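User: Show me an example of a complex going from sequences to structure tokens.

Assistant: Sure. Here are the input components:
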Amino acid sequence: MVREVSESCVDSVTMEMVAAYCGRFYANKQELAARRIEAIGYQVGLQLAERYTKERPRFADHLEAIKFICKDFWSELFKKQIDNLKTNHRGTFVLQDNRFRWLTRISLDSPLPTANGSPKESSTTSNDAKSAQAAGMHLYFPCGIIRGALTNLGVPCQVSAEVANLPACSFVIRIKG
Amino acid sequence: MAPLAPRSGDAVFANVERVNAELVTLTYGAIVRQLLTDFEEVEEVNKQLDQMGYNIGIRLIDEFLAKSNITRCVDFKETAEVIAKVGFKMFLGVTASVGNWDADGTECSLILEDNPLVDFVELPETCQGLYYCNVLCGVIRGALEMVSMKTEVRWVRDMLCGDDAYELKLKLLEQVPEEYPYKDDE
């Protein structure tokens, strides 16, 4: 039987890790904090991929490895698959999760503007900016996990994340070389 | 008389959202590893892990009280039992046993035979003095502080260091009287 713990353990540990690195350890060096958080994720991804692929044959190509991340790997971690996968066929892949579990509990400081507030266009833009900022630091960890997992599967890459509308989020994978 | 608090966290654990333990185990391991790189001194890493635990504990207590259906504990002995049987179960899926009470009932041991945080973990020689699971001390201390109990929590036995069990010493330092925010009405 698979050993389980409460989901709040994962949430608490990752949230506190992000808070500790951004707030206490590297309060004035957000870039360093981000790199450390990404490195922690990388380590986790490396080890998870190792475990989840134990009994599988090698992946034939990059696309197969990425599909594995979208389906099996994502399901193991978040109990759902990636909702949409796009590629430009030149080494860039965009993985979209319409309801990324780790962003579902992030709230914004200010309430969303009501209809009688600023014009619709600009309020959407500022909400997007706020979402991105609030979520930003929390996304280095999953980016690191994806990079670690893909590296373990023989796909060296860079991973970044984009948030437009919480809790939806896209991970952009750029394969190196 | 108040109804007895549930003696088992099984039902609570069955009802919370659960995830594969590997994710927590590996994430925690990666954090400890990164802290060791960043702080170099194991003493400092122990301190940071305890602090992280404290910050987690002061938040986790809310979820614990909301979901566990626990009523007020009559004494510290009951508090320790609830932590061991309901608290550990609800979050980590394991239970601890309580023992080694001192004469005045303010100090005891929580003994864990099973601990998901240490699956796959081996400590190298260079990590002597590291309390790998120190986060748990902080969690308990933080959570109890939110329900008016100042405590001291420390590791006395650690299987990663060759002991035969995981044993935490839990000592009640003081019961802080609850303060209500009367000032709101002034």
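The lines above are the inputs; the final block is the predicted structure for all two components together. The interface with chain B takes residues 2-10, 12-14, 16-17, 19-20, 24-25, 36, 39-41, 43-44, 47-48, 51, 76-77, 79 of chain A (CB under 8 Å).
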